[in-house]
Give the backbone structure.
Amino acid sequence: MMSGRPPSPKPVAQPVPFVGMQVDTPKANVQRRVYAADECAPEQAAAVPPGQYSRLPQRPTTITEPGLPQPGAQGGNNNRIDPAQIPRPDAQADAGRPWLTRTNLGQVPPPANSGFLVEDNGNASPHYMRLSLNQLIASEDHLKASAVPFGVVVQPLADVPLQEGAVPVVDYGNAGPIRCFRCRAYINPFFSFLDGGRSFQCNLCGMVNPTPSECFCELDQNGYRRDHAERPELCRGVVEFVAPPEYQARPPAPPPIVCLVEASHGAVSAGILQAVLGSLVSILASLPPHTRFALVTFDDTIHFYEAGDGGGVRQLVVADTGEICLPLPPEALLQPLQQGLPALDELMQAVVTICGATKNPNAALGAALEACHLLLEPTGGRLLLFQHTLPSSGPMKLLQRDDVRQYGTDKEKALLLPLDDSWGKLAAKMAAAHTCCSTFHFASGNFVDLASQSMLSRVTGGQLYLYANCVPEHRDEWGTKLQAELARNLMRTNGFEGVMRFRCSKGLRVDEYLMGSAKPGDLDVGVAGIDADSAFGVTFKYDDKLEEAQLACVQCALLYTTPFGERRIRVLTLGFQVTSSMASLFRYADLDALTNILMRQAALATAKQTLHQVREAVVTATVSILYTYRKMCASSTAAGQLILPESLKLLPLYALSLTKNALLRAGTDVRADERSALIAMASRMPVVSSVAFVYPRLFALDALEDDVGAPDASGAPLLPRTLPLSLEKLEPDGAFLLDDSVSLFLWLGRGVTQNFLEAVLQVRSMDGVDCSRLRLYPVDNSLSIRVNRLVNAVRSQRPHLLQSVRVIVAKDPLEGRFLSMLTDDRAQASMSYVEFLCHIHRQIQSKFN
């Protein structure tokens, strides 16, 4: 019989007051040792029944606002925490102790932007490869539950400190290096030799292979080959093999260089043509004399140049941009520098004279690119584009489509995509012909549609450069920047005609390549060009369950041609630990690598989602990671506290900063071209740069030590402590330097001393001074020397570009840009760091409820 009484309402879960925050810090140091080929590192946590997770011993550090009740106390509904006690980036790591790669297998490497030396004793150096998780959970379901992406950031041709030495080169002759018959993995320190050395077991697929007779060597009492220490491929995690003839599709040759320079009226009147040609004259003389070179200019026609035998320069004009052809065969247009160097200066002066009087405002960039593709198609090589005017004639012309009214709407996404598919198709043709294209774009407030043009560098492995204030009165600044960056582009370590493959231990496979564009985990990835400053990300997924308490490995093999025409195979092998403990997964997470992967995923997601959706995805990923840690590793803590794992204690700070970065943030101050340039930069950015790109570094200049910028034991420069990115840290009488990996900002308070202004900037007062005209030149006084040492030290960590120093004072046009980088503070449409921590806590609590 039913009662007439209405049903009782369901109880509603009440939010738990936020009473503080706790960082879980492991107590004990992990004992480390070198493991033989058939050994594995022991589990750091005790074994637990399936489906449960062990918890590491922790030393909780409770952070609460003074006056708030402690966990477990009654009352208190204040959602504030003490800003002075929330997690901040730590000081630089101790550079005096080398990081032993095999000894520290499964451990978190030192911070990427700290000075540290590496000793490769059988595992890839973190200078080349960094994993997001150094201990991987055995089950795919548990990894998905953790919400932490498992991937690696690889910089195969990275420059490393001189103390670490060059990558050893091994030549096996025509037979080629030893490889597994089944999975084709290359010989590496994790191969196990059996049966007295007559066979070896592959560390990736487990197959036992016979040892080639010419490579046989007996084993010692520990199971190592007796020649183990003499063979780099058996004792080094990064090694390079000389490729045998069967690895060569065509005879290798040094790649030629073609420079395509805009010669329209706008480019000439702005001084861009003269600056580019002047830089080329000074740099080309430093290249190997066998390098073949060609110069091409364009307005609404295409101009080739030929140096006559008896002197003089002949211009060859292709006027028909509808049907592109070359005026001479490629071998006649591409001349070795050793033959053309005496006439190079004459050539550049003649080009300036010929093009200097032009009044043609149009630019047929698409046709010029097609012509350069024909020029390099037989051999491959390098194409350097110098562009200023929005292409308005010929094929692939672009439109003025930058509309501020679309910013912040669903239509903004279209501004970050190419106008049509012609740019992607041309880039794909160049990549197939092994042509690597780097692009230099000069703008002075004009729209050049980098969303379309960036496809050239992103698909072919080149680098994109944007010079945003190219007016004649600032040529001293952007001209210096151009020369430094062009010299680095031409003279750094470069690889061409690349083919890359990742191999993984049994149970894993490649999910996605995070490069200029996201690529599925195919077996081979073509890399038209790769250089010392380029990095890419790779994410993995499970094929099967991994074996617990075992070692697993990923191996990157890059087949490429050196600038001297030598075919090489660079092999990087990185081992990590498989664990059954979710606590170990979090404890040994590498925040620097994880942030780089999250940044890449966000940058590539802008092609499919709105910026608002991308920002929300970053926050959602952060909440999911911390929720899983709280649920599975710290469930016994007080409900009113936000629990952060020690290794990821800065994850909320970095996630907030990423959403406020010019790459993703809302607003009209970041124009479409700048955002497209940042997307291209992020898609190739190494970990050492991405840390400061996501969370900039702020240095106080009023108390610099005398040894600032001096090299430490690793050769890295000594830097002062960084400050939180908050306006309250900017003293009104102080001076501060902000580094965001792209630019440097020198902020001056209203009360900055006259002594500082005279010593550093050579002005007595900032009244009436145009800050954009100020330059930071070294002067013979102690303060100027220290400031310039700091600037040079920061620049030395970003060799791929020259960070210009922009002076900022109150009411400067760029003051808003500077303040937007103070990500700890609240902005008009975004939270402060403290507010974001409270928001994260509420989101985690809502998941529990």
Summary: The two ends are 34 Å apart (CA to CA).
